[in-house]
Each structure stands twice: as structure tokens, then as C-alpha cells.
Amino acid sequence: MGEFELIRRYFAAAACARAGGEVALGIGDDCALLALPAGEQLAVSADTLVAGVHFPDLCDPYLLGQRALAVSTSDLAGMGATPIGFTLALTLPTADSRWLCEFARRLDAMAAGCDMRLIGGDTTRGPLSMTLTVFGRVPAGQALLRSGAQPGDLLCVGGALGDAAGALPIVLGEREGDTAEAAALLRRYWTPQPQLALGQALRGKATAALDISDGLLADCAHIAAASGVSLCIEQSSVPLSKALLGFAGAEQALQCGLSGGDDYLLAFTLPAEALPALLDEGWPIHVIGHVTSGEGVQLLDADGNTIGVGPRGYNHFES
């Protein structure tokens, strides 16, 4: 099977490759054409996933199709953007029809769930990896940035943390995963759901935001640095699921929640007066701390004392 036949059969013919909405022209020409509504800005982000680094060398391509698009789209959620489309640059060791069919099938389903269109990309031969570039739109001046947190703001997250990190020993074959708790953690690892609606609801309310991909402590440090403030996290307020606590135990579960990557939930700062209305609307918001003057991220015990922590999150080039 040649490159262009591969693209035509598995990707260009998919429902998500049809033009429509803001996609004036999709797959078929040298470039796609996007038409933004007046007064909106284009949000763009790219993620590369490499076999053996971001996912196991041998994994279910159906699940990988979901995960690949979800983790990339989560960056749009972190900016409060509405998805438009994505490109896929796919490197494959071989053109395996079964693998491609399963990967493309779940990719198409995930795209439909996020109302996104596949608008282009590339295929080549080599070690398995994929780069997805996602495009979204946001009203001018309303994008959620990392740089607006103010002393006195609340520090919040959009759900229980650490489940995907708790699943990693199962994914890597280091531990058995035949319990209901393990199954729940594996769902969070393989099928994360970008918090797009929450991100859009936070426009005009949150002072800073991002999606948690490298771990709570590491990603909150980005907000602290960009905003020139200190973020104080109350250890006892970090939300952990019953599945993670039951599977990993309290100590390891907390470590997963603080430093484990792959949560793909939103972390954000919020004036206290904005919280009640958001809670009344039913958003899954957990207050885990506050913003103060200073710098960096502090982990606090029940008495407000600073707790020393070990590794703060994932870093590709840290030895």
C-alpha cells in the first residue's frame, strides 16, 4: 500500500475529514483553509507522542487513537478554546491494515465527540510516532492564559487527580490489573476526556489556567512563574479517587496526584467571588489552595506548614 492510498483509505475518507463549519477547505490541497468568525482568535497547539515514551511499544491501536487526539485537544481546553480541527503527522514502521483501521476508527469517533475535523497531515515510514496539531477559536481577549493569577485567588482543579499515573504500572506490565479499581484507572489513562466545556465556562472568570499533563506540582509551577506569584497547595485538599486510593494505597495515591502526569484536567486560579456561581452550574471544581505573593509552588500540611516534596513531575530531558 502506498502513502497516498493509505491516506485516502484510512483518513481522507473518514467522517471527520469532511469540510464544514470553520473548515472552508479540508484534505486534498496543499493547505487547509480556516474561516474564523469575526472577533475570534485562532488557538494552535502541537503534541508529539512517541512509542516507548508516551505509550507502550505494543498497545491497542483503537485506544491509542482516542488517547492521541484527547491529549492534544486538552491544550485547547486549557485556553478556553472551541475546537475546529487537527492535523496528523503519522510515522509507521509498516502499513499494517488492521492497526490502521482500528486507530483511524477511534480517532474519527474522538474527533466527532470534540466536534473537530481532520484537515491535513503527513505519513512516513519509521519508528512509530505521531504529531497532532490542534486548532481552536476563542473570542479575542478571552483566552485563558497562565499569566493572570493574583494574590488572594483560589487555586482549583477540575476533578480527581492521579488516576492515569496510578494505571501506569498496569500499562507497563509491572502489576496485574484485573480488579474494578484497576479498570477505572486504565480508563482514565487510555480515554482521557479534555475539559473543553469547563474551559469555555471559565472564560472571563478564571485569572489563569492550563491543563495538567506533567503533574500538578510541575504544571502549577508554570502558572506561578508566568504570573509572578506563589501557589500554595493544601495537601489534604488534593482530590483522589476511591479507585486510586484502593489500588495504590494512600501514600502512593497522593504521590500520583501531586506528581503523576497524564491527568488532562484543568488547573486554574479564580477570584473567590466567582466560585459559587460555577458550583451552582454543576462544574466539578475542587479548591485545593490559594495564591499568595512570592514565587514557586508550596505544599502545605493541615497546619499551614510547608512540606518537602520529591519529584515534581515529568521532564523528558531530566537525567
Characterise this structure.
The protein is of the alpha+beta class. 34% of the residues lie in helices and 24% in strands. The protein contains 10 helices and 12 strands. The strands form 3 sheets. Strands 8-10-7-11-9-12 form a 6-stranded mixed β-sheet. A 4-stranded mixed β-sheet has the order 3-6-4-5. A two-stranded antiparallel ribbon has the order 1-2. α8 (242-248) packs across α9 (250-259). It starts with a helix and ends in a 19-residue tail after the last strand.
What is this structure's SSE topology?
Layout (H helix, E strand, L loop, with lengths): L2 H10 L10 E3 L7 E2 L5 E11 L10 H19 L2 E11 L4 H17 L3 E9 L3 E11 L14 E4 L5 H9 L8 H11 L5 H6 L6 E4 L4 H12 L2 E5 L7 H7 L1 H10 L6 E5 L4 H6 L5 E7 L3 E5 L19
Parallel strand pairs: 4-5, 9-12
Antiparallel strand pairs: 1-2, 3-6, 4-6, 7-10, 7-11, 8-10, 9-11
Helix pairs in contact: 2-3, 4-5, 4-9, 5-8, 8-9
Quickly list its features.
about 325 residues; alpha+beta; 60s Ribosomal Protein L30, Chain: A; Phosphoribosyl-aminoimidazole Synthetase, Chain A, domain 2; 2 domains; six-stranded mixed sheet; four-stranded mixed sheet
Query: Given the structure, what is the number of helices?
Result: 10
CATH topology of the largest domain: Phosphoribosyl-aminoimidazole Synthetase, Chain A, domain 2
Distance between the termini: 41 Å
Task: Name the beta content range.
Answer: 15-25%
CATH A-level architecture of the largest domain:
Alpha-Beta Complex
What structural class do you assign from the helix and strand content? alpha+beta
H/E series: HEEEHEHEEEHHHEHEHHEHEE
Query: In angstroms, what is the radius of gyration?
Result: 20 Å
Care to count the β-strands? 12
Low-pLDDT residue spans: none
